[in-house]
Write a structure and sequence with these properties.
Layout: E1 3-4, E2 12-13, H1 24-36, H2 42-57, E3 68-72, E4 81-85, E5 89-96, E6 99-107, E7 110-111, H3 120-126, E8 130-133, H4 135-140, E9 145-151, E10 154-158, E11 165-171, H5 178-187, E12 209-211, E13 219-222, H6 227-231, E14 242-245, E15 249-251, E16 257-264, E17 269-277, E18 283-294, E19 297-300, E20 305-309, H7 316-322
Parallel strand pairs: 1-2
Antiparallel strand pairs: 3-4, 3-11, 4-5, 5-6, 7-8, 8-9, 9-10, 10-11, 12-16, 13-14, 13-20, 14-15, 15-16, 16-17, 17-18, 18-19, 19-20
Helix pairs in contact: 1-2
């Protein structure tokens, strides 16, 4: 089943991958110099930092993959959504019996290394991948896309949610199903020889209907705490403050919630319909509404702002109890 893109709606989660980061290794070497040089003077530290800043600025806004439409696992004729790259914008187009939509649409502002140091686990995970950034992602030091070109018309996406490395293959427009061709024509006409990519940011869709997942990263979200606090906390201390979201379930310290469907509302709002076990042991229908702020943030219906934490920052014990490794 196709998912939503890396947070972009990764074809079920779109997946992607890009080759050769702009001297990412040099960035980490410079960062290590700064960390190790505690005995250095403040002036020396500032001096060591200058090349990193200069390198980050001197980046490109082009991905090392061909423009076009890509599907997970190369199943062009049966794809229910496709990842698109038009040279400036990325995202995914999906379609089902309820209609069609664009998920995770974002305009790339630059491609290259991070402007600020990453944690050691993320640094290791990103090694060998190209990082693509939006303006907002740059501010949050969180890339919108982590990918590696693996051949003509192929790339690997390092999903920032829970799906690991995902492989995409390029498809000609005519290889898509009739329903997907209709969806692409309506949602992203520039991908079928329509108008060129817009110079401004891609406008998120306002169309209502059923979607596979909201245009946010799948995975772990915290509120009223930081991702760093999660790393050192006991599972019991995180009940209520940490949730795991994907298209099938919502997990936290309480009963598992099994997602039935996700409804796109107006104004970047999405209603997640699910069943949850009650005190009587029976499954009861319920729902919650999230308002998407960015690919890594949403606000719940009570006004609480939730922030995405990469899986690498979540302790294994928690991931096994109520995360992607849980059997709940």
């Amino acid at each position: 089943m196709n998912r939503n893109f890396g947070g972009v709606r990764q074809i079920g989660q779109p997946r992607s991958g890009v080759a050769s980061m702009m001297s990412l290794s040099r960035f980490f070497v410079a960062t290590m110099i700064l960390l190790v040089g505690e005995a250095s003077s403040a002036a020396s530290a500032a001096q060591a930092q200058r090349p990193v800043a200069a390198q980050a600025v001197a980046t490109t806004a082009s991905l090392p993959i061909e423009r076009g439409l890509y599907v997970f696992d190369g199943d062009c004729g049966f794809a229910s959504d496709v990842f698109f790259y038009d040279g400036a914008n990325i995202g995914s187009v999906g379609a089902d019996s309820a209609g069609h939509w664009t998920n995770g649409a974002a305009r790339i502002s630059r491609v290259g290394p991070p402007r600020k140091p990453l944690g050691p686990e993320l640094a290791r995970a990103f090694r060998g991948f190209t990082l693509a950034w939006t303006v907002e992602g740059d501010r949050e030091n969180f890339p919108s896309l982590v990918l590696k070109a693996t051949g003509p018309g192929r790339f690997t996406d390092l999903s920032l949610g829970s799906f690991g490395e995902l492989t995409y293959e390029k498809c000609a427009f005519t290889q898509l199903s009739r329903a997907m061709q209709t969806a692409v024509r309506a949602e992203q006409p520039q991908m079928v020889g329509g108008p060129p990519a817009q110079t401004g940011a891609v406008t998120p869709p306002v169309q209502r209907g059923t979607v596979v997942f909201p245009p946010v990263e799948r995975g772990y979200y915290v509120w009223d705490m930081s991702c760093a606090k999660v790393q050192g906390a006991a599972p019991g201390a995180l009940i209520g403050g940490l949730h795991y979201y994907d298209e099938r379930r919502i997990l936290y310290g309480g009963p598992a919630r099994t997602v039935q469907r996700i409804e796109a509302l107006a104004g970047n709002r999405y209603r997640l319909h699910y069943r949850e076990e009650g005190e009587d042991g029976e499954l009861h229908p319920s729902s919650e509404v999230m308002t998407v702020n960015s690919r890594t943030s949403f606000t719940d219906e009570y006004g609480n702002r939730h922030t995405h934490c990469p899986s690498a920052q979540i302790p294994r014990s928690i991931r096994e109890q109520w995360g992607e490794f849980s059997r709940r």
